[in-house]
Amino acid sequence: MIRMTALAALLAASFITNAAEEPATKGDPAKGKTVAETICVACHGADGNSPASANPNLAGQVPEYIHKQLSNFKAVDGKPAARNNPIMMGMAAPLSDEDMRNVAAWFSQQKLKPAAAKDESQIALGQKLWRMGDFKKGVPACAGCHGPAGAGLPAQFPRLSGQYPEYTEAQLKAFRQGDRANDPESMMRNVAAKLSDAEIKAVAEYAAGLR
Ligand code: HEC
Ligand code: HEC
Question: I need a surface site. Which of 30, 72, 91, 136 has the fewest CB within 10 A?
């Protein structure tokens, strides 16, 4: 219960900072659609349902999260990009902040095609981590930040339900190794550091099938 209270306070604090940081500049999905259809389509699909597991689905993703990731793929003021991926760094470089808001608005409004967990043997372990975490290892429940059904929680916490398990697994390993370090307050690095390969695989499979 103490941990839940701390988490609630953390969540509340993040809402407050985001409310202050995010001005009411909502993107224009119609303009974003053009960007999606001309540039993003090859890898993410024009509607954000990507054709291959290396490319994450963007349909139904939290718009502020999409915008943040695109910004993180960009080098700012000569500093290296906060999120390192050669393909996406090239894609984000020519986009203006307005382009990023527009394309984020477009993808967030598209319908994510439902996925199913492929490997049923992973469900019990995955579900336990998702709902309760692992008290002994100090792993918090994923549901606390990503929502009980994995739909994400605006503005900071991305949707994980319906995502390719291979992509989710790769991101968890990247956080664990510190190759991905753009998570605020090391929130995800702290979680991933405590997960084994088997746990990562199980929770990635479980999240894929959530709805
Ligand atoms: C040539 C293929 C390719 C194209 C074109 C492409 N992407 Fe990506 N995108 C990727 C890959 C691969 C990743 C995963 C990067 C990683 O593993 O960290 C990614 C990741 C992302 C992410 C992070 C998603 C998440 O869940 O964290 C966003 C947002 C994104 N792309 C948006 C876009 C937008 C918007 C466009 C068009 C302007 C675009 N991408 C064009 C390949 C592509
Ligand atoms: C304390 C809050 C918190 C908890 C608990 C948490 N996460 Fe996260 N997670 C985040 C935040 C914040 C981000 C976005 C980081 C960023 O801005 O790049 C994130 C991002 C992710 C991503 C990257 C998604 C993408 O599209 O690239 C994955 C995968 C992920 N979390 C999985 C998990 C799993 C699995 C668990 C449970 C074992 C978990 N998280 C628990 C806060 C949390």
Answer: 136
CA distance 189 to 161: 20
Tens of pLDDT along 58-101? 999 999 999 999 999 999 888 999 999 999 999 999 999 999 99
Report the nearest-CA residue for atom 10 of ligand 1.
Answer: 55
The answer to whether the beta carbons of residues 117 and 205 sit under 8 Å apart is yes
**Surface-to-core class of residue 27, CB atoms within 10 Å of its CB (0-12 exposed, 13-18 middle, 19+ buried):** buried
For residue range 100-138, what is the model confidence (pLDDT) as tens digits?
999 999 999 999 998 777 778 889 999 999 999 999 999
Q: What is the dihedral of CA 74, 79, 83, 89, to 10 degrees?
A: 40
